[in-house]
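Quick start: what a row looks like.
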Amino acid sequence: MAVRVPKGYLVAGVHCGLKRDLRKPDLSLIVSEVPATAAGVYTQNIVCAAPVQLDRRRTPSNRIRVVVINSGNANACTGERGLRDAEEMARLAAKAVGAEEDQVLVMSTGVIGVYLPMEKIAHGIELAAARLGNDEEALIMAARGMMTTDTVYKLSGRTLSLARREIQITGMVKGAAMMGPNLATMLGVIFTDATLEVDTAQQLLREVVDDTFNCINVDGHTSTNDTVLFLANGAAGGPPLVGDLLDDFKQAFHSLCTELARMIPADGEGATHLITIEVRGCRTRADALQIARAIANSPLVKAAIHGADPNWGRIVSAAGYANVPFDPNKMTLYLNGTCLYRDGTPVKFDEIEVSNSIRAERETRIELIFQEGSASGRFWTTDLTPEYVRLNAEYRT
């Protein structure tokens, strides 16, 4: 089933010359026909891009109407001129669709330290405003307009019925590298026609991002531009969601964000494997996530998976330096369902069979089980490949 644009929104994606390839869109618009509740979660990098600074000032809000996105240029580390350019992007987008300037949020992604070519941006906004639509083609073009080194556009949706109202949640993300937790460069826009209070939307976004987009890693590099925006315009009708209705909405929202989060490392630059790391039996969720993150960040673990090498010692030792106290003699490790290490001692297993299981499947599953408590955590990462090194060595040259 095609992903739908929620009621009361128009979207577009166009090419305006920021990318050399004329076939690749590089500017997108998302427009709500009425003021929407808007929430945002942003990079934890203290070196943050001009659009992040602008959006932080404007969210949360109950009157946002437009998100304008460019790819090919991050507008990061560009000083006061960068801030002026981000504000000018907002002004141009507002003028093009009949909104107020402070009703616009801005996102940028691409090369750091290069000023935006504002003539091209202005032309792109005019083009996009003229092509706004609510069909699947317009939605795909908008999703493609935020891509940089992504090989596929990342788009998904959920449709649910709440109190006899049909509600649509749609999300698009971009990201393939420069990807580490704390909005592990990713951009995301999730928009819905549900009615939500401002504080509810901000809390919901923060909680779900913490369990989804903050649990992905490609290279451990937290970007200057990471942003996830959430818009709810209420076009489906009815009062703000509360109680059981809000719980049902949150479940669908979490499912959508989980799917979108997995898409990012699955499309990691040069990646041949998506690695899911499940850690269970810890004292706290924070402990479980810290161990999972240490494993996900290990270039040795990632290289071993690329080589289909069931080198469990690398996984166990990464857990050991995660700075989480545990009893090493009560730790068990499974790789693709096969036990390799139990209660602090090696287990006899068929190395060729486990190696073939890694090689044959796109997804590799690591399960680490402790006996410290009942808390668990999950992380997604990629293998480390020669193609990743090549792509990033040649990114600007």
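That is the whole record. The CA atoms of residues 60 and 105 lie 11 Å apart. The mean pLDDT is 93.
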